[in-house]
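dumping the sequnces here before i forget
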Amino acid sequence: MTNARSIHLASRPKGAPTAENFRLEVHDLPDPSDGEVSLRVIWLSLDPYMRGRMDDGPSYAEPIKVDGVMGGQTVAEVIASKADGFATGDIVTGMTGWTTHATMPADGLRKLNPDQAPVQTSLGVLGMPGMTAWTGISELIGAKEGETIVISAATGAVGAVAGQIAKARGCRVIGVAGGPEKCSFATDTLGYDACIDHYAMDDGKAMAKALSEQAPNGIDGYFENVGGKTTAGVIPNMALNGRIAVCGMVAWYNGANMDQTIPLPLVWRTILTKRVTVRGFIVSDHWDRFDAFLSEVAPLVQSGKLTWREDVTEGLENAPETFMGMLTGDNFGKTLIRVGDDA
Amino acid sequence: MTNARSIHLASRPKGAPTAENFRLEVHDLPDPSDGEVSLRVIWLSLDPYMRGRMDDGPSYAEPIKVDGVMGGQTVAEVIASKADGFATGDIVTGMTGWTTHATMPADGLRKLNPDQAPVQTSLGVLGMPGMTAWTGISELIGAKEGETIVISAATGAVGAVAGQIAKARGCRVIGVAGGPEKCSFATDTLGYDACIDHYAMDDGKAMAKALSEQAPNGIDGYFENVGGKTTAGVIPNMALNGRIAVCGMVAWYNGANMDQTIPLPLVWRTILTKRVTVRGFIVSDHWDRFDAFLSEVAPLVQSGKLTWREDVTEGLENAPETFMGMLTGDNFGKTLIRVGDDA
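..and the predicted 3d for all of it:
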């Protein structure tokens, strides 16, 4: 019998998650029933949205149950199959959660072709984060040649793809990231025209000034990942008919940085006088456009025009600490846990 | 020679306008040159947008120059004409400003047919306020049968039309207005399903509770005219895929009521988790849709399904005081100054 190790939600966090909110459990892996497969996980994706699911307040997704396995997408190898079309040795991606092994219905799994691209890109540039980036840039902002686009969390799993898509569309692209190393990566490797280090900005006013220098004609599109002083600096710089795609606000998660903001009346005034559109989105509402995403982004990946960076931590037991660090910006690129060896 | 009396901007207001910001001037009315007409004003429209033009900060329109005539739309009679197509006795509407008489190019004037509807409706339900209402309800909110729509300044020149258009589309329509008299008018005469008296609400939390009782399934569309505690109460009640059309924020004009708000992080959170769209608009961007507006709203006026109320003050010299009162909600219906007798 195979032992499966899983990370469970031990308790709901109050503010920032701590180690006590997670618990490692070991159990026997059941054999698959009809229509099911057993999986050995290779890669686990860690993503900021998971923080919201740890709460039970109103959000866009079902909360994880206390004592339940932490949810998440992985790449895994089929080690036993009672499902048509799935054979031992197949590499798949699906929502196994934070675990080394899982036995589950084959329905929600998608088979990967390891010859086309590294399998973990299904968790990154060619998966949910890439699709999220494309949805914001293409469907909500509608970035057009010559426009000025600002991307926060500019080197993150979503932001890095968003910035490169905007660049490929002929936009002037300004990143906001934490620290000189990430900013250099944004301009030197990802091709951003400029990158502002938010650690070097005291507050929203300083951020506004820095952005106005980089976007003298205003910001046509803002891809919102962070909130906080970045948002406070972006709003006053929005151009006429500007668009803001609200994808996340990691600076404000856990109830943090609530003082890094600007008064709503000033936001509303900008929305009115500049005829700005602000729209929130969740990638899962847009899966019907996955083919349109692939048709724009897969060629950029295959031609090498779109690059990405992975931030890999070894071992499932390190997932909680890596996750907590990601929420405060410790990660640099797409956050992955190496759970098992390649097939 | 005819004497023209005009109200000029004497100085820019600091906060709420006062009588000292306005000055009455008398001058001789010049004769028209080629292409011009001379006009005797009958009706002057007072509208909240005029407050913004008294400032010289960034806004959606050119500021009025200090010492210049206050801008505004009127209905007037042609008393002399050197313009093709315009004859003495014609009734027209145009941007003469706050004045009893004007000599100006005929280009920007539109002739009215007094037999079709009272001429002052060109300043109200069938003019800019009506078109503003329709643009918000139709073009931005896209109100659909069965949806719940909230209208602030529910009995104002714009709000009253917005509410009645939404009602004609089969929506549940909830008004917010100041005082029991306006609320009774909203439900009894305008046909709102409910109306909340914002004077009876201590703060945004009280407003949120009252709205949640009237909109148990959430608010699909919000027509924003006021800001303040109404906005603070609406945001937490927005339904999935809700739309907010930002048309004005009179409670926050003059820098007032800045404490009647909710923190931006909570607004952003609602926008994200409920996939809300917030969009500011200015009716002048949408004039190309004027025919579509008329095709929906003119039949409602002609059939008597859409009613309106006028708040008339006699005499141009009373325009400043009436305008200042309108900004604090003293008006009840479409604010008009009766400048001269009917033709």
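Chain B touches chain A at residues 52, 58-60, 224, 227, 231, 246-249, 252, 258, 261-265, 267-282, 285 (CB under 8 Å).
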